[in-house]
Write a structure and sequence with these properties.
2 domains; UDP N-Acetylglucosamine Acyltransferase, domain 1; Spore Coat Polysaccharide Biosynthesis Protein SpsA, Chain A; eight-stranded parallel beta sheet; 35 strands; globular; mainly beta
């Protein structure tokens, strides 16, 4: 079977994390999305071709789509041209024609497939991928005074310092330093060459490489770009007290994230002053800064 990746449909909605990178290069479990999807398809026996090489039997997959492998195989084995949609009828992939509307059939799947439209969909995808880890791999150094539980992948040269607790599933990149006395938990991926300082907590988040999270910070259900410095005591709000779901502004429109827990989306090169607080759902654009003691209640894009 053949498959081809098509350009993303919704990358503009994932700003600021896509402000200076293609959505296909966004990191999921420390791996670019396109590499992650390619590896899974090749492992399953698919031949990947360029879009101009596609035939009527080639499965066309927009790169901003998370697909369960069984659903793709089901589409591939279908004899007629067909669209693969989720349970709500949202288009995921198709085969037969360049235009999916020309396909003869529609297949709906109840599997965990979804389009990646907004930044919180990247968090969902990261959660799905790291949950599939079935073993712990510790190539770096772990202090005997640190605690590791669940499935954890620790890269070469990385260090987990005394008093730190890491509760998997967690992926930590090469040469990253955790602690001392830091807490990493939930479905979290931390890139290479990062620093998570004393008393800091990172929960259910994506942290890009070369980012510095100072002492006593809290980063929850958030995406933090590369070369970011979060000043000491920087905290993201992430939980609604009334149990409802968070809304986040996208192009001047309030969008329901569908999540009861959602933090911030922080672009590359951001620097926050000490004791900055970020209201749930806010976004800070590339190179943004905050003053010490700031409370950020609206996007800074």
């Amino acid at each position: 079977m053949q498959a081809t990746f098509l350009p993303p449909n919704h990358d503009v909605f994932c700003a600021p994390i896509t402000a200076n990178r293609d959505l296909s290069e966004c990191l999921i479990a420390n791996t670019p999305m396109v590499d992650l999807l390619s590896t899974e398809l090749i492992t399953a026996g698919f031949q990947l071709v360029a879009p101009h090489e596609a035939t009527p039997r080639t499965i066309r997959i927009p790169i901003d789509t998370w697909l369960e492998l069984g659903s793709i195989l089901m589409l591939g084995r279908n004899e007629k041209s067909a669209r693969l949609c989720d349970s709500d009828g949202v288009l995921l992939a198709w085969k037969g024609f360049d235009d999916p509307d020309e396909c003869e059939e529609e297949i709906r799947t109840e599997a965990g497939c979804f389009p990646v439209v907004y930044p919180w969909d990247l968090l969902k995808m990261n959660e799905e991928v790291v949950a599939l880890m079935d073993e712990t791999t510790l190539i770096g150094e772990v202090s005997p005074l640190a605690t590791i539980s669940g499935n954890v992948r620790l890269g070469r040269g990385a260090k987990i310092l005394p008093g730190s607790v890491v509760e998997g599933p967690v992926v930590i990149g090469a040469n990253t330093v955790i602690g001392p006395s830091a807490l990493i938990r939930g479905a979290t991926s931390i890139g290479a060459d990062c620093y998570i300082g004393h008393g800091a907590e990172v929960k259910n988040s994506i942290i890009y490489p070369n980012t510095y999270i100072s002492r006593h910070c809290y980063v929850g259900d958030s995406i933090v770009g590369s070369h970011v410095t979060l000043g000491a005591g920087t905290r993201t709000e992430n939980h609604r007290h009334d149990g409802k779901t968070h809304f986040s502004m996208v192009r001047n429109k309030a969008i329901d994230t569908g999540r009861q827990k959602f933090g911030a989306v922080i672009g590359d090169g951001v620097r926050t002053g000490v004791n900055t607080s970020l209201e749930a759902g806010v976004k800070i654009g590339i190179g943004g800064t905050t003053k010490p003691g700031s409370y950020i209640e609206a996007d800074m894009l």
